[in-house]
Design a protein that fits this description.
The protein is an alpha+beta fold and 174 residues long. It contains 6 helices and 7 strands, in the order βααααβββαβαββ. A 7-stranded mixed beta sheet has the order 1-2-3-4-5-7-6. The protein is globular, with a radius of gyration of 16 Å. Keywords: Transferase.
Length: 174
Amino acid sequence: MITLKGDTVYLRALEPEDLDFIHDIENDESIWELSCTQTPYSKYLIKQYLENAHIDIYEAKQLRLVISNYKDEALGLIDLFDFDFKNKRAGVGILVKKPNHRSKGFGSEALELLIDYCFTQLDLHQLFCNISEDNEASIKLFTNQGFENIGLKKDWTFIHGAYKNEYLFQLINN
């Protein structure tokens, strides 16, 4: 049986009530590097995004889910992007918003739930992620879930006046 519910977290669809939560994340300059964001987002634009969040993954080519605990507190976001049904692959991104919620297993459990959903429900063959070479927490998270480092993209992102390398990780469903 497919479930997006774990022991400590569950994954749910975006709701209109998530407006402030998403606005805070999208406008937090300290994490713009993760999403390649360069400008702030207005609440108006995020509200429009939420109004269209119901669009099917096969049409939108992406899926964003909220990581919630069983107190119904939004902890973070987990995304599928570049969804390619023909080649049966998608990219994965994850963010646990508050630093005090990190390294507690929430991201790991959310990623495990998403991997299971992708391989069993969406019938994907592979998942991939892009991680800055200095993001040790994300490297550990993804490698602990079986992702393999398959390459280094040199000088891939330009952040704060300097180029940074980025790893490409991949998980193939055997």
